[in-house]
Write a structure and sequence with these properties.
Layout: H1 10-15, H2 26-34, H3 36-45, E1 50-51, H4 52-58, H5 64-76, E2 80-85, E3 91-96, H6 98-116, H7 118-124, H8 127-130
Antiparallel strand pairs: 1-3, 2-3
Helix pairs in contact: 3-6
Length: 135
């Protein structure tokens, strides 16, 4: 079976190495999305709009500084929408853009797979590493 090169999908193009190349611009975005906090922020915002403090509570363990940096990166990439209301005290809400909603669904699929397969993953870890994780 021959494949028409013009009909190859994005996954095929990626396998050929564009994202694997050091100079590929998608690497920076991939880093923002798959960072420790990026994934968790996308998951939390996938459940709805949040104010900063609500989001910080939803994403356990994130510092204010890291949450602010993560939100700025995801906003700059077009995944997060920030709305600041002109009131005192300041009222700022964060939500996903349509592009962010698409991404959140994919990130949720990955995290669902990890959680569903966590027992098998943990079984494959060396005992010395596994002691740091509990189910």
């Amino acid at each position: 079976m021959t494949t028409n090169p013009s009909n190859t999908g994005l996954a095929d193009k990626m396998r050929r190495g564009a994202v694997l190349a050091a100079a590929c611009p998608s690497r920076k975005i991939l880093n923002h999305v798959t960072s420790r906090w990026g994934v968790l922020v996308l998951l939390a915002l996938g459940r709805g709009t949040h104010r900063f403090a609500e989001l910080r509570r939803a994403v356990g363990g994130v510092s204010e500084k890291m949450l602010a940096q993560t939100l700025q990166c995801l906003e700059a990439d077009g995944f997060v929408k920030r709305i600041a209301y002109p009131v005192v005290p300041p009222h700022v809400e964060y939500s996903l853009t349509p592009l962010g909603e698409e991404l959140s669904i994919r990130v949720e699929g990955l995290t669902d797979w990890i959680e569903e397969n966590l027992p098998r993953i943990m079984e494959s870890r060396p005992v010395s590493e596994g002691q740091f994780f509990s189910l």
